[in-house]
C-alpha cells in the first residue's frame, strides 16, 4: 500500500481492527435466502432489508425509510428499496451509494462445496465463501464497515451520503426506475437537502482478472426473453403418444437452435448490423490492459474459451452483443428416467446489448425471427415469444472527476493504477441514475474476476473485503477535493 495520508491512517487501522466483527456481519447478511427470482422466498427479502436497516440505524443514519414499490403481480408485493442519509451539509458534495440486497439462486445440489447461505471462512486461502459475498452483499457491507470506522473514531465524513439499497436487481430492478424518475420529477428524497447530486457510486462489479484492480466505465445492457410453446392440455405418456403428437419440447428446442450457434454468433438477422464499429483508437485500449487467456480460463474454471487472445476475449465480453440460452421450464430435470411429454414448456434466453443497439428495434427483430421460424415448423402447437424485462447499456467518461478520485483511491489502497475497463454484465439502474439525477456514475469494484458471482462457490477474498472498505472511504476523501 502506498504512503497513507495522515487523515486516512486511523480509519484504515480501525477497519483492520474490526475485521472479525465485519466477517460476522457478512455471515448474518448472507444467511438470508434473499433470492428475488423465487417467489416462495419473497419473505426473506423483507427480512434482509430489516437487517440492513438495523445496521444503518446503528450508524446514526437519518431519514431511513423503506419505500413500498407496489406489487410485482396481484398478491405478490415487491420488496422495499431502502433510502437513508448521513450528513446534510450544504457546503459538502453529495454522493449516492447504490447497492442491492438480493442474490441469485443457490443450493448445495448445484455443486457448492459448502452451504451457500452459510458463510464459510476458508482461512488457509483467505476466502469468504457464500452466496452474495461478492455480488453484492459483501461490497454493500464494505461501505457500512467504512462508516462504522469513522463513527468509532468520532470522525466526520467529507461528503454527504445518500444510501439507495434495492432488493430486485437480480430480477431487473422492477419498480426502481419509476421510483427514481418520480423522485427526480418531484425533487423528493434525493434532493431534499441538496440542489444536486454530485456523484453516484456503485460497487456491484469485479476486477477484470485477479492481480490488477479496475474501474469500470461501461456496461452491456440485457434484454431477457421467453419462448412458450403450448400443446396438449396435460402431460402425456411418450409410449402412448410419442410419434403421434406434436411435442412442445421438440418445437422449443428447434426454435432455440435458430438463435445462436456454438461459436457464439447471433443468428437473428439485423442484430449485428446495429453494433457500433470498432475504431483503431479503441483497439489500442485493449492492448494496454493487463489480462490473459489463462486468467479468463481460471475465472471460468475451464478451457472452453472461443478465442486465443485477450483482445478478442475483451471485445466479445465488453463491446459485442451476446446471446445466451438460460433454461427450460417444465422440462423434466430430476434424477432417473421419466418418459413424459410435457404439455407446455418455456425457453428463456437473453441478449447482452451494446452501443448502438436500439432496445425496441431489437425486441421487434427477435420476436419476428422466432415467429418466422415457428411458422416453418408447421406445428399445430401454439407459441408466443415475449420480452420479460430489459435494461439499457451504459457508457461513461473514465476521466471525469469521479473516476479520477476513484483512480487515486485505488492506487493508494492497492499500490497500482487501475485498469479502465468495460464489463459484460448489466446493472440496469446505472443509466437511470445518470439520466434522472443528472449525475455522473462511477463503478468501483471490490472483488476479483474469479469470485464466481452467479456461480457455485461464490467468494470474496478477505483482503478485498477489508481493502474494499478502505478503497471506498478513500474515494470519498479524494472526491470531496475535486472541482
UniProtKB/TrEMBL annotation:
Residue ranges of the TM segments: none
InterPro entries attached to this UniProt entry: Cyt/Met_Dipeptidase, Peptidase_M20, Peptidase_M20_dimer
Keywords assigned by UniProt, alphabetized: Hydrolase, Metal-binding, Protease
Annotated Pfam families: M20_dimer, Peptidase_M20
Record GO terms (molecular function): metal ion binding; peptidase activity
Source organism superkingdom: Eukaryota
Residue ranges of domain Peptidase M20 dimerisation in the record: 217-375
GO biological process: proteolysis
Family (UniProt): Belongs to the peptidase M20A family.
The protein's name in its UniProt record: Peptidase M20 dimerisation domain-containing protein
